[in-house]
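Case study 2.
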Amino acid sequence: MIDYAKYRLDDAMMLKRLAHPNDRVRMILDTDAFNEVDDQFALAYALLSQEKLQVQAVTAAPFFNWNSTSPGEGMEKSYNEIFNIFKLMELDQTPPVYRGSSQFMDNADEPVPSEAVDRIIELALSGDEEPLYVVAIGAITNVASAIAKCPEIIQKIVVIWLGPNSYWWPTQDIFNVSQDYHASRIFYDSGVPLVILPCHSVASHLLTSTYEIDACLRDRNKLGTYFSDLFHGRFERFGRNRPGWSKVLWDVSAIAWLLNEEWVPSVVRRTPILNPNFTYSVDDNRHFYKEAIDIDRSLVYMDLFEKLSKPY
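Prediction:
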């Protein structure tokens, strides 16, 4: 068993790490970009927010659902989708992209090797006193494997995780947590500085519709039209492309928190224990973490749509 205790920050340093950054930050985006439609929005949002975010790498995360035949295929599809978004954005320069884990962790002591894991470690250790922000918006196998392989990075990174539900929600059995329980446990137990953007009941406020996407993005540029097509395609697959239906862009919340905490207020709490049945237990002696408690849907979407609708 990995002894994380010797790498943990003291309370004062942990609170400093959890404070919202005032300046431009170095970041990695770890994304299962082909899983559905929200990762692509988050990726483009981060790349178009250079005033606050320096995206130094994008890593492809595994996923396994109706849209893949295995975690490895999900990762490979995500890897290719990242380049598709780059092409649609017609960027002069793009961050390097790395393949991630092809499977989930078998236990919390055995990292899954990948080029993404090695790059996360390399970038974390290469920085100065300011931390590397690792924004994880899929199953967190890559990031947890990096922590397990090199626990020293606990002192060098801050993890922003779109994953669990709010601490008071009755279950944490949700996609980004339950796909890889062992990896999720590392986030809670290692002492890595952690900011959680809950799905329910924070990111769930980021509802939008085909009508809004069409009005704000369609025919504005290649990416906007692609997002509109993607939206229509996803809704049609589920038979829900009818008036009144809406979709949450979950992953956008993680980027929004980094851009402006006033849009996504958060509080510091003691880190819960994630049980095997995906419920929480409480121990007030554990290390601190930060959790978002609300999101201003209007301010986030006004900023997002303004950036996405500009001609490239």
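Residues 71-89 form the longest helix (19 residues).
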